[in-house]
Known about the structure:
By secondary structure, the chain is α/β, with parallel strands linked by helices. It has 22 helices and 16 strands. Bound molecules: 4-O-methyl-alpha-D-glucopyranuronic acid. 4-O-methyl-alpha-D-glucopyranuronic acid binds next to loops.
Amino acid sequence: METRQKWFKAVLGLALALPLLASGQPGQPGEDGYDLWLRYRALPAAARAELLAHSRSLVGPTQDSPMLEAAAGEIERGVAQMGGRAPARAQAISSDGALVLATPASLPALASLGLPLAALGPEGYALRSTRLDGHAITLIAANTERGLLYGSFAWLRAVQLGADLAHLDEQSAPKVRWRMLDHWDNLDRTVERGYAGLSIWDWAALPGGPRERYVDYARANASLGINAAVLNNVNTRAEMLTAPWLFKVAALADVLRPYGIRVFVSARFSAPLEIGGLPTADPLDPRVRAWWRAKADEIYRLIPDFGGFLVKANSEGEPGPRDYGRSHMDGANMLADALAPHRGLVIWRAFVYSEKDADDRAKQAYTEFVPGDGKFAANVVVQVKNGPIDFQPREPFHPLFGAMPHTNLGLEFEITKEYLGFSTHLAYLGPLFEEVLRADTHQAPGATVARIVDGAQYGDGRPTLIAGVANIGTDRNWCGSQFDQANWYVFGRLAWDPELSAEAVAREWAARTFGHAPGVVDAIAQIMMGSREAVVDYMTPLGLAHLMGTSHHYGPAPWVAELARPEWNPVYYHRADADGIGFDRGASGSGAVAQYAPYWARRWGDAATTPPELLLWFHHVGWDERPAAFGDGRTVWEELVHRYDAGVAAVVAMRRAWDALAPAIDPRRHAEVASFLAVQEREARWWRDACVAYFQSLNHRALPAGVVAPAATLEQYRAMKFSFAAGRGG
Ligand code: GCV
């Protein structure tokens, strides 16, 4: 609570101070966000001179390699744009100021420079200002070409952030093996939960089409270390696995490969039936197993470094092994067998809940998967959403983390903001990702979600994975809004290093995207850091969840109660009535809390020790109760209304802070963000008003003193229809 008030004051304070701080270095008037954070604008004179002095020549391993060419090409592009001239390519170090790309194989002298090469592994890099052959040089060193690619992007980042180029000493290696974007792109180019235009994959034109856009996509990912992409929606058609489509996938793999990106596809479990001419897709049927083996062989002939399959099985109507009385293990391991000879991976999603299971939806994945611990093949990763329901503005971490120590568990975030205001609401997801990654599962000493997911907890070299549902489309600014670029960015940075701080990443992104005048970065980072909590407050405060409109998830609809499956209805989640509100997941309710380690089961099992942020997730409490955890003596009803108001007030503060940045930001991007913030304020008020009106209609309590009544009647909110709502896809 106190933290939020501090944030609120800080945002307003910075907003007022900004006109004084603005450095008068806005970007070009025509900037539209296409360049993302790879925005290599001309540097001021002194910084330009420093850059050129440290990039007089570019010395690199000389073998003909598309990946090295990608690395060198990026350095040339960046230096030319920021410094005014590209470095000359050279075979050897012949002067001070050389920028040297080196592996131990290309430059044996590396071994004598004391670089931590072993710790860099196959993907890490080191940047080091040093002397070699009598010259002062900058080394970009790695064990592999891929490390050099990441190191080249890291050096450019250092330049953009104004690092002292004469004293570089940085090294980094990714903690997670697979850093993956999952595209929910349909084959007709609509995007499920996409708010940034159509799919960037122009299937009709492939193997031709917008190559430059694909390359720019790949550059952006490589700059973050993202090394894998699933091209199609998990709700997929079997056709994706037919020859004409695979031919197109192969063409994309060719474009993405030099940037270190391996291509995966979502596979429909019933493909043997639908495109294979078999009477069954039973994973234990030898014909089915042979079909998948042959399919894998066919794919690897076309794409030798194909990554593997992502599978959504027996979830939300998708086919799966349970259709044949088989288990998730039977299904996943059958595909794993087919891919194993090619070293391919099966990513099997744990996002399951069934209309045939009356149990609390939050419990069902754990119930179905924990008995399979230790029974999945070595090349299967079970991919688990960050929380037990579905990418809500706030959920506790998923109870599967730490509960399947003998299974490779990957983590799935949703970068696209299906439940956080689509692309028109500014919500920086860094704090959400950080909250999940840092959560201590208490299943074993030190067992945070980050350490479970990055493998540090187990230390046995298992395949590790962090995936994010992409927010990328054909919009000129890629993500539908300027600030949603930050969510792609922070996803990539945290997938590389889950221990990074969301705030540090926000500052880094702001500086690279909008320029690093100190006041500007401070103000933008302040806006970003409070923005997710603002959404939580005006949509689903105090641990509420899933109050969004049916199917499109646009706007408030807490009253919906008539849908066929209980867990499709918001009333299932909030359980509000005349006396109280919240879902009892304790011992007297669904018992979901018992799926967590005893530490959490005890703490969250008791309303008195549950933090306000999760109170209504775990407890049904009376409207007039005054939980000690609120710390302010308010009743549940008063606190709920207060949170809704705080959410709206936070958006007002964000708007003012952004308005004050006008002198420091190029007009086009500034105006675009400002127009979306106006939408966000209107919709935040709508959320607040509709929810307050609805809950008040149940509890018949007066509004707390001084609180403004909703602008319209509940009936008016209930009558609203949104045939324009985006993102449903297919
Ligand atoms: C791709 C939620 C979304 C669906 C999505 C599903 C999933 O239910 O609303 O659009 O489907 O999650 O993750 O499979």
